Amino acid sequence: MEDKIQNIVSRAIDRLNELLPTGQSLPKERTTTLLGRGGRLDSMGFVNFLVALEEELEKQLGITATLADEVMMDGLSTVGELHEVLARVVRSRRSPDGITTV
């Protein structure tokens, strides 16, 4: 499952980087700070990133989720913390037999 989460995050970052000005791309390292002190994204960039993540989650795993609610509850600030949020969302939407529930 970790590989799938990594791919979703990676593809969403690729999509976001297409929208960002040259030289302001978001690194894919788990330690990259997204928001707050030293954060790489402004509020609009973060919203665009969440939308890209939601679209990739649905496209790759068939899971529809509103990640803003999950992110706000967790006080997310790094790419690594985002991985944890996505893993929790995926686990909560999958039944024991591996079938996705929506």
Outline the structure in words:
The chain has 102 residues and is mostly helical. Helix content is 59%, strand content 0%. The protein is built from four helices and no strands. α1 crosses α2, α1 crosses α4 and α3 crosses α4. The radius of gyration is 13 Å and the shape is globular.
Order of helices and strands: HHHH
State the distance separating the first and last CA atoms: 18 Å
The major beta sheet can be summarized as: none
Proportion of residues in helical segments: 55-70%
Class derived from helix and strand content: mainly alpha
Count of distinct strands:
0
Strand content: under 5%
- Radius of gyration using CA atoms only: 13 Å
Number of helices: 4
